[in-house]
Amino acid sequence: MHTPAPEPESNPATPASDRRPHTSVVPNQTTVSRGLALLTFAFILSQFYRSCLAVIAPEIQHDFALSPAGFGAMSSCFFLSFAVAQIPVGIAFDRYGVGRPTAWLLAIGALSAVGFVLAPNWAVAMLAQMGLGLACAPVFMGLLHYASENLDERQYMRIVSRSNALGMVGALCATAPLGWISQHAGWRPALAVSALCMVGACYGVWRYVRDSGHAQARQAPMGAMLAESGKLLAYWPLWTLIPMCVAMAAGTGFRNAWSGPYLADVFGMQAGARGVALTLLSLTGFLTAFLLPVLVRRNTLKSTVGGWACFAMIGGIALTIWPDAGVVSGVAMMALLSTIGMLHPLVMAQGRALIPAQARGRGLGVLNTFVFLGSALTSWGFGLIANAGHLRGWANPDIYAAIFLSAVIAVVLSLVAYWFSPTSAPVVKP
User: Fold this and answer.
1) How far is residue 54's CA from residue 183's CA, in Å, rounded to a whole number?
2) 253-296 tens-digit pLDDT
3) Buried b / exposed e along 264-285 (16+ C-beta atoms within 10 A)
4) Per-residue pLDDT tens digits for 75-116
5) DSSP secondary structure string, 4-51?
6) Are 244 and 137 in contact (CB under 8 A)?
């Protein structure tokens, strides 16, 4: 079993600059390093905004008078707009490069971050969450795309894995620090700091990430590019990866939105204590991000993804059977389940090998659409399960056991499809 081979024009032995005749701008190494650093900073902010609602969920529900279903809808707004933006963002990357589209969307994010801090009601807060989702939509895919255009295969895996791990700094900031500040000063002042960081990220990307798209993509009519994106969905190898893209959200969606309510409802933990507990989840993800590339070097990409998904699923099974066994075991099993989300760059790397360079932005956009569509659907679906449980008078542990069971089912179904994923494949012809 071997890692899927990259397309011929992406020969790792060939320097990136020699593989880019269709790109009008060839940045130097200093420019590339600076661009990757700024995109990584923006990714850290993206991870913060993906995770922050989990810690302050009870306070958000109280301030905006939200039911569990209402909170699920609010948290899903972020991921739904994130998902919807992926293919248009991919087209923009192919036509114009990463810098300009990302800067424009980060500007929307800066305004939305301020709007969420000042939101007087749930409607404004949901609109702000949608804007934040749009802002974060291009960041990780932009990092992948920018790296793939400017680095060879070995550098690509090393840099992307490192950036993915550093992104967990944002998730860490959304745990104990956010919980402590929220408990003592309120959640609005805490999120005001992140709004300032969003403004800084917007300026940095606009100022320093200077690249252009592909001449072939710029010359293609927009309608034709949309049609080509749709044709990627007819390529069956991608459909062996898409269920895994959705299933990754089963773990991360719970961590990002429902881990806080779980700790509050089942164990009665306050915001500060929840933040400390969720710090352990983020630290586990941080360590997993460094461990997975080591496993890939010693095994294969496919066996690492499949094996780790099975390992993470053990956490979901344990929580389904013993949802209220104790805080320590609950946090440990949540941490294990959430690590399935750290497979994201590996699954994208496997998909990347199937997509030609001129369509890579759109191809990664298709896969990322399903990642964050999965996050939106699971966050919303978990809220519906919680609401139904409350209406039927279920005990809190039973409600969360049902949620964990749905996550396990999603992972099982994804593993069935992933079993048939190709270890090597011809280049897709969009």
Assistant:
1) 14
2) 777 677 878 888 898 888 778 878 878 887 888 888 888 888 98
3) bbbbebebbbbbebbbbbbebb
4) 888 888 888 888 888 888 878 888 899 999 999 999 999 999
5) PPPPGGG-TTS-GGGG-TTBS----HHHHHHHHHHHHHHHHHHHHHHH
6) no
The one-letter amino acid code at 113 reads A
* Assigned token pair, 154: 């070995």
Q: Which helix (H) or strand (E) holds 375?
A: helix 360-391
> Of 358, 102, 83, 80, which is closest to residue 228 (Cα–Cα)?
358
| pTM of structure | 0.68
Residue 214, φ and ψ in degrees, nearest 5: -100, 135
CA nearest 355: which of 261, 266, 238? 238
CA nearest neighbour of 262 among 285, 281, 290: 281
User: Do residues 136 and 82 lie in contact, with contact meaning Cβ atoms separated by under 8 Å?
Assistant: yes
> CA angle, corner 175, sides to 173 and 181, nearest 5?
80
* CATH architecture for the domain at 28-213+224-418: Up-down Bundle (1.20)
